[in-house]
Amino acid sequence: MKKVLITGASKGIGFELAKFFAKKNHALYLIARDEKKLKKLKKEIKEINPKLPCYILSFDLLEINKIKNLILNIKNRFGTVDIVVHNGGTLVNKSFVKIKKEDLINSFTINYFAPYLITQKIMPILTKKAHVIFIGSVGGINGSVKFPGLSSYSPSKGALITLAECLAEEFKMTNFRFNCLALGAVQTEMLKKAFPKYKAPLSPKSISSFIFDFAIKGGEFFNGKVLPVSSTTP
Ligand SMILES: NC(=O)c1ccc[n+]([C@@H]2O[C@H](COP(=O)([O-])OP(=O)(O)OC[C@H]3O[C@@H](n4cnc5c(N)ncnc54)[C@H](OP(=O)(O)O)[C@@H]3O)[C@@H](O)[C@H]2O)c1
Question: Less packed terminus of the chain by CB within 10 Å, N or C?
Answer without folding.
Answer: N
